[in-house]
Amino acid sequence: MKNYKTWLKTAAVFQLIIAVVHATTLFFDLPPNNETEKQLSQLMSTYQFDLGGGFHRTMNELIIGLSSCLSLLCTLAGLINLYLIRKKVDADIMKGIISINLIVFGILFVLTVIFTFLFPIIQIGLILLFLVLSRLSSRKDN
Predict the structure, then answer these.
(1) DSSP labels for 49-106?
(2) Which of 30, 19, 104 lies closest to 68, judged by CA?
(3) Which of 40, 42, 88, 133 is the most buried (most CB within 10 A)?
(4) Is the pLDDT assigned to residue 3 strictly greater than 90?
(5) What secondary structure does DSSP assign to 12-32, as a single string?
């Protein structure tokens, strides 16, 4: 089980890098390019939806809430993976952890392809690639 650790470390490092990159994008707004984008931007930051229970949120607030989840997911997965590698956890447990990562990031990749754009698709795709390589190499090492 030597090779899988390299691929899993690479996946974990990418998870942490993507978490930081994505978190920094939460603090910047793209300037509108035309009058339609300006109107849309204003509505997204000022119009509040009544979500029931006394909650009134703008679309920008909802997007920040959801977008921050990607950073937190990548941070959690990356730190857990690095921690378990460092603790030299049993190979069977690592296979299970890698499989869980594959399921979660596989679903995330499909959703990213359907609902986002090229940059996050590439980012999540790289994580998924390294997780697949890690899982395949863990199978060979047995």
Answers:
(1) EE-STT-EEEHHHHHHHHHHHHHHHHHHHHHHHHHHHHTT--HHHHHHHHHHHHHHHH
(2) 19
(3) 133
(4) no
(5) HHHHHHHHHHHHHHTT--PPP
